[in-house]
């Protein structure tokens, strides 16, 4: 397999590419400016925990979020500074939330392709000079060094909240879009669980609830389960 030379080439796990990002490159931090970065619920969890913010405060201060016009699916994007168009978290030395940076930032310069286990290069060498550097990786090595797996696992779990017969792009009622948004605003979901009537009604196991109150990741998985059961019930009624 030859090295991918352009950003449309589809790459698989064992395919090689050259890349090294460092301070001396003229493009350093340029990719953290005026860019659309879509956040997953797990991205929000990791970032707001690292910043010591509640989910609502994080979403308000550091994201643009809305329900998509026709489908009403929640869209959550990392906010850029209004004046400089730079990401709120970029500094002189690079990313200031590096250990908790979003999935898309970890993957860069790779992006997910349309099919499972396939990737493309998101940028070209004219924009991302790191692609001209000598360090060689396979896609699998790169994803491993960037610790992408926990993000991929959580996102796969989030994808299962939609009923099996739901077709991508199918419009949802706005109320169901708001229900999906609970996965991003996890503190609101946790506050709902303070109501014993709700936990009894949805038969939430008290031991699991106790664990979730101590473990954000478990709270997120519980939110996925709650959203899945609610969506299944409500879509049946519509
Ligand atoms: S454009 Fe590429 S090489 Fe330049 S800072 Fe961004 S990731 Fe690094
Ligand atoms: S989170 Fe970090 S890596 Fe991602 S755009 Fe912002 S500064 Fe860049």
From TrEMBL:
Top-level taxon of origin: Bacteria
Pfam (any one): CxxCxxCC
Entries under PANTHER family matching the protein: PUTATIVE-RELATED (PTHR35866), YKGJ FAMILY CYSTEINE CLUSTER PROTEIN (PTHR35866:SF1)
Protein name as annotated: Uncharacterized protein
Organism encoding this protein: Desulfacinum infernum DSM 9756
